[in-house]
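Design request, tokens follow.
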């Protein structure tokens, strides 16, 4: 099966598989005391800066709850867009694990701005209201839009003036970096991001994510938070070892480049077939568009994808690191 349903549907890059096989040799100290985790930590610091402190976890939701717990107390609130992954697709896990409330903001493009956030900050200092402490954004957003470097810097500077944190969900950070033509550090640490959930499973890895804290106060209790959130992997080497070739061999860059390119190619070829309405800019590897329901239902018999807004006839197509032109041609042919 070939799918445009999600970049999670794609397989594992051969070099990543080889890294896991290599890590399977002999015994290794558990819970991160192994040589692979130590090496992966060094590689991450090389790509994100010396202030980066990585904590390897199992998955994306786990990474988000660990990061958000480090930022909050139970009387705090977490601000996100209403389409954010933590608001839509994490089954209430951030609120359950942090005890903090989630405040959702309506956006036109999935992106938050200081102007959208500011009305929620009137609650600061008022003891009857939960206190805003961290803003969560996805890079790229769930709608496939990308924050510019200046937009992230502006957000970080604004939040820091209120003694708040900026958390970036980087499940597709590689795709955003390719779009912006920047390094991973240039769109995170250099922009004032406080804590990052960095993922690779959507871009060629098998499993595992890493929470990267850039502030000492967020590092202090992280290892205890990770354990309490059931995100401490005993055989950590099988997760951490993947990040070594992923970063050192630029697999993150090559894979994301292909996914982004294929998204643009798919959009171009769909456009040639009719006047479809693309509801968001295609800035990474996600396309949102409307088509007649009779057409989308027929396409679903041959291809896998999701409705984004079924009532409006809006579908979501996602390209992957291993999407090919043949995949696209087959889909467009059926259109």
């Amino acid at each position: 099966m070939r799918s445009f349903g999600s970049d999670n549907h794609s397989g594992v890059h051969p070099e990543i598989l080889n890294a896991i096989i290599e890590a399977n040799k002999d015994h290794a100290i558990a819970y991160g005391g192994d040589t692979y985790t130590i090496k992966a930590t060094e590689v991450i610091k090389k790509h994100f800066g010396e202030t980066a402190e990585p904590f390897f976890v199992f998955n994306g939701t786990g990474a988000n709850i660990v990061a958000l717990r480090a930022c909050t107390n139970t009387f705090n609130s977490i601000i996100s867009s209403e389409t954010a992954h933590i608001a839509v697709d994490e089954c209430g896990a951030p609120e359950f694990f942090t005890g903090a409330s989630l405040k959702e903001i309506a956006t036109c493009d999935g992106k938050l701005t200081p102007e959208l956030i500011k009305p929620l900050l009137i609650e600061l200092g008022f003891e009857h209201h939960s206190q805003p402490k961290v803003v969560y954004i996805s890079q790229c957003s769930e709608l496939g839009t990308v924050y510019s470097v200046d937009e992230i810097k502006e957000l970080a500077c604004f939040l820091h003036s209120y003694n708040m944190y900026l958390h970036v969900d980087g499940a597709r950070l590689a795709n955003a970096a390719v779009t912006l033509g920047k390094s991973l550090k240039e769109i995170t640490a250099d922009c004032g991001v406080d804590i990052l959930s960095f993922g690779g499973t959507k871009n060629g890895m098998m499993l595992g994510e890493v929470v990267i804290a850039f502030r000492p106060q967020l590092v202090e209790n992280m290892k205890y938070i990770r354990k309490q959130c059931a995100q401490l992997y005993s055989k950590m080497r099988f997760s951490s070892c993947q990040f070594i070739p992923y970063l050192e061999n630029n697999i993150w860059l090559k894979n994301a480049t292909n996914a982004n390119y294929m998204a643009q190619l798919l959009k171009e070829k769909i456009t040639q077939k009719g006047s479809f309405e693309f509801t968001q800019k295609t800035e990474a590897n996600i396309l949102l568009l409307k088509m007649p329901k009779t057409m989308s239902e027929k396409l679903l018999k041959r291809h896998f994808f999701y409705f984004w807004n079924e009532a409006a006839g809006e579908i979501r197509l996602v390209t992957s690191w291993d999407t090919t032109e043949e995949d696209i041609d087959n889909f467009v042919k059926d259109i």
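Comment from the thread starter after seeing the answer: thanks! The domain at 14-248 is CATH 3.40.640.10 (Aspartate Aminotransferase; domain 2).
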